[in-house]
Amino acid sequence: MLLIDIEGIKSLNDLFLQIIKQNLSSDALLWLENKIELIKTEEKSIQLNLAFSHLPRLAGKKPIEVQTEDEEKIDGLLPGFSLNGWTADRLSRVWLLMQVPDEHKETYIKKINGLFIASEMNEQIALYSALPFLAYAEEWVARCEDGIRSNIGTVLEAIMYHNPYPAHFLSEGAWNQLVLKAFFTEKDVNHIIGLKERSNQALSDTLSDYVQERLAAHRTVNPEIYKLIEQKNQKI
Fold it and tell me: What is residue 86's three-state secondary structure?
């Protein structure tokens, strides 16, 4: 179940590198490219872990600048996905993950899982942002579900906002949990890819109950909830 084909990944890989070159200093870019060569040849994860951890010091945390034509190319290759609001270290980390050799499934999964286990907040943001580009996509469903249970707003946004992975791979139950969590934490659900396409009766019923609870407590209700409920009722 592919989210994007190999040629699409290659095109995005080249495009991300082009954007990185526009946003990193020459020294930082040289350091990153040297680390990539070491990562591609090492059997263990020493260089990968070091590079992933140290990248913000070299790349910086300033928001990246993306040309309009590049934004259009990205959307054409992976509809809905966006680098809007990303920082230089976030994009560099995601691109770095795209360079990890994936010929040996068990080794690859072990390396990526190792990063998840040891990750702090900003590293988690990069890891969840990279879900659409990781090899063996189905293997990361449980990681995505773990992320939905996070109480860190920026981590949730990395999973929810402009990220096509959840809509493509999550089960109905996990998807419904994501949508509910978005409403509970007052996220902008308009940034969730597949929100309308993956509407379902169980979600509609749960949202209806949620609305009644909010109204009974004299609390406001996000208008988007009514849209989802009405949309599902119209399909029946």
Answer: coil
Q: Please state the separation of Cα 156 from the chain's center in Å.
A: 9
Under 8 Å between Cβ of 129 and 137 = no
Predicted confidence (pLDDT) per residue in 121-138, tens digit: 999 999 999 999 999 999
Q: How many Å apart are CA 186 and CA 10, to the nearest integer?
A: 35
Average pLDDT over residues 165-185: 97
Annotate 162-212 with DSSP letters as a single string.
T--HHHHH--HHHHHHHHHHHHHTT--GGGBTTTTTT--HHHHHHHHHHHH
As a whole number, mean pLDDT of residues 187-207 equals 95
The region that residue 85 occupies, defined by phi over 0 for left and psi between -120 and 50 for alpha, beta otherwise, is left
Token output for 150: 């996070």
Taking the C-alpha atoms of residue 24 and residue 209, their distance in angstroms, rounded to an integer, is 49
pTM (two decimals): 0.94
Alpha-carbon span 148 to 177, nearest angstrom: 8
